[in-house]
Amino acid sequence: MSRAAQGPLNTTALFGATGMLGSAFLEAFLDVVVEGYKPKVLVFMRPGKVLNTRYEQHAQVQVVPCDYPKGGDDLVEKLRGTDALVSVLSGPGYTFGRSDQGG
């Protein structure tokens, strides 16, 4: 079954929303381009990061505190039910809890 036949993407996980590119993605997700389509955006935030105040109380935005570089069951559980994942992270990369790789 094609993605179009399954219906719209109602819940999107966004990683990197505090950066220049990530904030542009978040703005695009919240922009009404199809009347009545208002996807929920789960904004994954590492400890110590703060989302722009204009998005904090937005009805479509849900901030998800998560130390995602550690990976694991907590991350998997928080992603459950999402239709899409968008990552606009920058930096040297993450190994998601693997101790056998640098990064």
Automatic annotation (TrEMBL):
Gene3D superfamilies named in the record: NAD(P)-binding Rossmann-like Domain
Which InterPro entries does the record cross-reference, listed alphabetically?
NAD(P)-bd_dom_sf
What protein name does the entry list?
NAD(P)-binding domain-containing protein
Question: Can you name the source organism?
Answer: Daedalea quercina L-15889
